[in-house]
């Protein structure tokens, strides 16, 4: 029996990626929709065969509690709404899959975790990269010291974020600019590859003066993460330059690179480990799979077999803690901020 999903928010990600991915899932299926736009929802419902009684507005959202076909609520709203809809969803007795970033503050993340615990429901943050086969292969190589010890990771996620009039450029809705939206991929993926938590971070923030897109949120952030093993990560994110979505792991006897690493499709894994001076890159062929389908089917497995998801609420909370430290550092002109490492990352699922 597939696990039934209600998807909340019919924006770009839902319409272009998640609903088509649900159709490819083996363990998950779409059973309900939640939207503030009844006309749009009617069209989407007809396209995906969802009956009118399984369509909800933000006002009738809490009535999901009376719909036994819905086991999971997938929250795909602007970041500032994640906490409220997670908490209300847990109170309605549903498991929650919530888009990244988990929320806009550590406090909200803690409230979300508490609400799900109290309701006896699971909470997963939708870090699709952690379910994607090539990135998982890199994790295996890094953690297995395939090319000796990892020394440095460089990660970049930049794109031109488009016109000023959008929620991503409003601090109250987005929480921040490039960092929580796309810089988060650098941060989360580095933590995922290494399986350890940074103990010191530092950041610099730059915004083009007069650019109407960046009156409330930052355009660019450069940040470093220092890990207990000695690994240093150097990360770059920006909302005002051409797309780059890549990282490279520098280890003692080789490097491993994903370029692109964070896109939905067309990911490419390369490595070089021939003797110095003869360096040749080689591509590692791994069949592409739909990251969103893998992620949802993982959560459905957890629901069916009563397991903790690989990216639970605590994973989102930890990123939020680090992002708050990065902003603190940026505000002080780049002074390093020390972090306590108090989460235990699961090794595998
Ligand atoms: P979007 O702007 O395309 O859609 C947002 C939806 O929320 C729209 O349907 C909009 O009508 C609705 N909404 C409700 N209240 C709103 C309000 N006050 N202001 C604006 N919109 C409101 O955004 P999106 O790109 O679909 O992003 C949604 C969430 O998904 C975000 O949290 C984002 O970070 C996340 N996301 C994740 C990925 C990924 O790869 N995992 C990719 C894109 C977006």
TrEMBL record:
Keyword set includes Zinc: no
Lineage of source species: Bacteria, Pseudomonadati, Bacteroidota, Cytophagia, Cytophagales
Feature: compositional bias, Basic and acidic residues: 339-348
Domain Gfo/Idh/MocA-like oxidoreductase C-terminal: 140-339
A GO term, aspect molecular function: oxidoreductase activity
Domain Gfo/Idh/MocA-like oxidoreductase N-terminal intervals: 4-127
Keyword terms, alphabetized: Oxidoreductase
Name used for this protein in its record: Gfo/Idh/MocA family oxidoreductase
Membrane-spanning ranges: none
Family to which this protein belongs: Belongs to the Gfo/Idh/MocA family.
Location of region: Disordered: 329-349
Species, as recorded: Hymenobacter aquaticus
